[in-house]
Each structure stands twice: as C-alpha cells, then as structure tokens.
Amino acid sequence: MRAVVALLLGSVSASLAGTPTVLVTGATGGTGQLLYAQLVADTRVAQPVRALVHGNASDPAAKAKAAKALNCTQCDESEGVYYGDVTDPASMRDAMHGVTTVAIAVGAGFTLNSTLQKAIEFTGVENQVSALAGSGGSLEEKRVVLCSSMATTNPHPSPFEGGPILFWKLN
After folding, report:
1. Which of 7, 1, 47, 2 is nearest to 143 (CA)?
2. Which contiguous run of DSSP H or E holds residue 82?
3. What is the per-residue burial (b if ≥16 Cβ within 10 Å, else e) of 2-37?
C-alpha cells in the first residue's frame, strides 16, 4: 500500500502546485481503509483526508462501519467523512467539492448480482470521474487513481477469480 501512496503522491505532486486534497471512495473496504490510513499519516496530503462511505449519514450502521474502519469519532464532514453511493452522482457532490485527487477503491463483491456489479464497477467509476470533473477547479489539476486489489490482468477471468467483476474493472 505504501507503494500505491508513493505513486499517487508522486504523480500528483509532480503535476500540481500545493498540497493535494484526496478523497478515498470505498474507504471502509479492505483496500480503501489501508489506503486511507496511509494518506492520513502522510504530511504531503491535505488533512483531513476525505472518505466516501457507502450509505447514509443518519444510518447508525454506516456510522459504526466508518468508526471501525477509519478510526473516526464523529464520522462526519468535520472529520472528512462523507456518505453516499457511487451509483448516485448527486450523493457524491459534497464529498468531491474542492478535491484534487480521488482514489477509487470501491468494490462490488461477489454476492451482488451482475446488474449491481456493473453499476458499481463500471458506471460507478464513470460517476466518480464525472463528479470530480464537475467539482470545480481546473481539469488539469484533477487526478484519478483506480485502486484494485483484484487480479485485473486477465481479460477473461474464471468465476473463482472474480468473473464479471474483473470484466467491469478492466473496461
């Protein structure tokens, strides 16, 4: 994960003036929470690092998930924690405002049907990029880093290797 952070910050700092404001989507997942923790510990990143957590801020289960994964206490915008859904572009608007870099670490999981897998892994990524582009500021200052812990080098993965989820990550 340190290599991902170094790569992310190396490409960002080489092309941007100032300290990047980073949003980690999928921040409570396995990859997302590791990336979030590394970015929080990095002095080259504007603090607080932002996190997009799937769900609604009024849902106690979503708040508990955020508290456990992100080590937050209020788990709200004051700590850079936002709630939304990558399949709903409007729900990401506040989280994206002022962001220069989005680190996409969302994942559909194997238990979802193929329609939801595509909605998260393909359309959801498109939605995140569009939300970042529409969040104000110059497009030249925006960066997207797609982080995946799945083996995305196989264009025709077997079901036990990720199947259709990997197809949507590759497209």
Report:
1. 7
2. strand 81-84
3. eebbeebbeebeeebeeebbbbbbbbbbebbbbbbb
17 token code pair: 């003036």
Helix (H) or strand (E) holding 50: strand 50-54
Cβ atoms 129, 144 nearer than 8 A: yes
Q: Tens of pLDDT along 120-167?
A: 888 999 999 999 999 988 888 899 998 875 545 555 666 666 566 666
The answer to which of 2-11, 80-89, 116-125 has the lowest mean pLDDT is 2-11
Rounded to 5°, angle at Cα 1 from 19 and 128: 60
* 13 vs 50: CA distance, rounded Å: 18
CA distances 61 to 6, 26, 85, Å, are 33, 16, 15
pTM for this prediction:
0.82
Is residue 26 within 8 Å of 84, Cβ to Cβ? Answer: no
